[in-house]
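== Polypeptide entry ==
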Amino acid sequence: MRIGVIIAAAGRSTRFGEGDKLSQDLGGRAVLLRTVEAFVKRDEVAAIVVAGPPDDLEAFRARFGPALGFNGARIVEGGRAERWESIARAIAELPDDVTHIAVHDGARPCVGNEMLDRIFAAAQVAKAVVPGVAVRDTLKRCGKEMVSAAADDAIADMILGDVGREQSSGRPVVETVSRENLFAVQTPQVFDAALLREAYKKVDLVGTTDDASVIERFGEQVLVVEGDPRNLKITTKDDLALARAILNIAPPADRAAHLRF
């Protein structure tokens, strides 16, 4: 089994706020490097390609290139609009002799060896494997428009002001969605290399949100195996704080100065 790993790192991090989430400190190393290191240690991994942001590629290379190169990873230009654009470009840069292709989010640094063991083992008997966590919370489908319960209540506005108005705003529930057999899908998603290459050539990729959906459109079965709730994707600063807690890493300000970098 020879796995070519694609790390998707071309996103703009708009929901993270100020700063680049992939550059954030995790125990003296950037989030992206932590993510890549999880695969460097695996004997099955033959190549690692990181798809970076095309509009900022030179700065991205300057920021991450030396450390990624030390870990045997190459940087390629990712897509501008959709995730599948990045993956399509990265697939073309992988060696022809890889038997499997794994696609992982650059902002998932908490991926653990136990989960990788499960995913890689399953990929030896199934052509498309993704990790998933059963949905536990009650799910509500809501309307698009924001409404305010006290918008026309002059007395409430007088007493509560803007704070009260914000607290009473929300979206109306349309229906409760059954969570039976629903899974929140994670990465890495692992595929037979020939299958993924062919699917990317033949499928209409517009609207696909992950590589499993590409395979689904191609008509092949995707197997969901047990994921890991700790394998979170860092999207906001709260996620970063949670990732530090999972990895038992203090934020830079709480570490001795000589351990911050």
Notes: Helices lie at 31-40, 57-70, 83-93, 113-123, 154-167, 193-202, 211-218, 237-246. The first strand starts at residue 3 and ends at 8. The mean pLDDT is 89.
